[in-house]
């Protein structure tokens, strides 16, 4: 392999920002006489859509903890009854703070914590076949459990700005099992082979390492809910088998399935030959990597270019061991400065290549050239000890992603071989939608076997789609879809062709927008909305029934005499919706809501209120509810039942998870309640309508009203002048403002029964004839006159 020219002070080409890196002069090249180690002609990773929370483990609280008294009560109780053993909290506060910092630091970074998320499959011994790919991850409050998550593919269309589209099968987490394996101590590693995915997983905790086989027996169909899954330990290597030292890493030969290697905190690795399924294994070889004095117990291993060699990395050195002669060590890489090795990754396309992540740079190495990195990039994130790397290999390119459990930013580096020269394919960049920290991240390609448009003659010009899964500290799984494309290519979930036509038309007819333009734009927005979620229900029919109605006729319900008058358009639109005066609790059941409605209806009908249906007479809500019968008028649980029934018909094809169903049922409940209480109107009696002229506090009015302060209509004063006795001197009277706290008894009674806002009724000034009797009878004695009140204009008519 050719190398770049080095100066006398350089050991390898270390790239950084601000310069093009090393260069070679090629006089025979007609296009360019110079080539540089930095190449800017490759394609980056771009985000498709947004981050999706695939699974979120709810916090665990035991019943004993929930019933436990507060700390303040504990202190008072101990101080009163056990003063001899009570310790003031102020004395313990520094220790509590220090303990919390230790726990927080441990959660963010643990040197012995390996991968906690991996792909796997489950073996069916009866039918002798493997399940589709699943996700295996560490769960539980104390990371002592292992859970499985099935992955279902959904047909989705993505659109490109060059007027092309692709049919994808987007994987989503469908079902999550409870614990299939429990450990007494925190689990520190769950791994599998990225090439040979199968029924085996590796597990490591504080006391042992194990090779586990996943076996299941389906009961009805291929579903975790209807299957018995067993995690069978095939091989268990205890700490006392490796010099009574905790293990740091474990690897397995997934291709030959007969060798397992374990390394402990002291750097002592051991090879175990596995013969048979349950036979006792015997240790065949071991060796200690040199210079372990400055190591914190972190070691990492992987297979070399053959199954007869392994690569072992510590904080300072990386060595190659031949399993046939384990006493010999070949040094591949070492650090002479204060840096430490944080992670290393073995590639699958070229078995001789591997990458090392240090506290200052990312290094690309070849085991055939020990001690001479091919290229390296400085990442300037030396403060972060939780940095890790994953690599996606694409047509000879190594796309390396740095992620962290402290910093959510993910950095991307690309390396490639062109001829025999190593290049940096593109400048390092921040990966889009880097919003979450991660303990472990894995990359799953989408276009190798899951895309219908995939063909055997795939070229580098075809966009490749991958999905990045990340496991967070709270045991939540977050995913993001990425694709490889140049700067001029963009993929989205909505069709570019429709959006471009609207943009062109808007510029052409910017001064003459029409109703048809708005309708076309609405159709495009609706299509974009549906494309982003392929499981939505089309509620456009319901919307048109409720809103786009020309003949909006109210029909009275709960009325003894149904006559033609109730079918007429109500001239006075001062109608309250049930939503204006009643808001049920979020946790209230339908039965509790119906009981509240019965009480409200009984109380209001006795006082002369009339209850109306705001649904057009000729329409049926959702096409099935008829308000001909009294019970259906307000028993809107029918809406909920129909929504669930409709969802059940389509849920089988969508394979919704248990978590999706719970949220869907909650959403449908809220929809049915909102539709139900918003489709019932309450009209006050005539006496109440007359009493609306009483003054109401201006603060009771909401933002849907405005006060006209500039115009005082003179006709409000004319009734006062008409009742004024001729010859009476106004100077004999003392004028004062009306007491605004006076409220009609009917209004007060109405609000005592409800805790909601008052009815939205317009107010007009009080005349002498409208005053209470004690005012009008003795007006001359009390020398009291009313002042006109400014008229309040309503922006809309109540009830709509």
From TrEMBL:
Pfam families on file: Rrn6_beta-prop
GO BP term (any one): nucleolar large rRNA transcription by RNA polymerase I
Residues annotated as domain RRN6 beta-propeller: 112-426
Domain of life: Eukaryota
Gene Ontology molecular function, alphabetical: RNA polymerase I general transcription initiation factor binding; RNA polymerase I transcription regulatory region sequence-specific DNA binding
GO cellular component: RNA polymerase I core factor complex
Identification of the protein by name: RRN6 beta-propeller domain-containing protein
PANTHER family: RNA POLYMERASE I-SPECIFIC TRANSCRIPTION INITIATION FACTOR RRN6
InterPro entries named in the record: RNA_pol_I-sp_TIF_RRN6-like, RRN6_beta-prop
Secretion signal span: none
